[in-house]
Amino acid sequence: MKVKLTEQQLVNLAKNIKNNTPTPQVGDIDFEKEAPNLTKLIKTLMSNKDAGINNITKNILPNTDKSVSKSKFARIIPKGNKMMHPLGRKEPITSPFGSRNTGIPGATKNHKGIDISTRSGSPVYAPLDGVVLNSQDTSPNPCGGFIKLDHVNLETKFCHLRRLNVREGDKVKKGQIIGYSGGGRNDPMHGNSSGPHLHYEILDKSGIAMNPVSVEPNLG
What we know:
Blueprint: H1 7-18, H2 31-34, H3 36-47, H4 53-57, E1 93-95, E2 98-99, E3 110-111, E4 114-117, E5 123-125, E6 130-137, E7 145-150, E8 154-159, E9 161-164, E10 171-172, E11 177-181, E12 197-204, E13 209-210, H5 212-215
Antiparallel strand pairs: 1-4, 2-3, 4-12, 5-11, 6-7, 6-10, 7-8, 8-12, 9-11, 12-13
């Protein structure tokens, strides 16, 4: 006899396993009678502390850690298709897009983004709905704490973050906090930075960097 489980029944079964329920039963299915092999497996998992129950069930139970509903958002979020400022407010641009000569060893002379002045620990927001393409400490790469988002028609990139709030594959909403700015000498993941700020890039779908101020007028 074959026993077919609905998605919800499978979730309930996984909860029973995780909670060490003595009689693993879901709905009106009597596993002892109708699925003895499955029952044997469940009992083995329950009795074996080394079976890694949490590792087994984490792929079945809903993952609430990535829930957007539990994420923090900005108080004011632009409506419609208007992009949100990554800091939620206009701040001075200390290094513009394009050619530059900073005098800082290792600093690129072809700046593919803009540097926005802000104190360390400032919330950094997703400018549009999207998906996280990358989120990691790229050290010893000069970017340091790095997040890249895909927004269907364009991509955005953030560097020198001291804290990363999202992971690769996460879906994010406009105005959601994705991380916190850094760049200070004592900040973790600061990369090659002369002081606290946010490095922000906007790229087209082919990966070519565009002047963020031209794409997002509320930056300048």
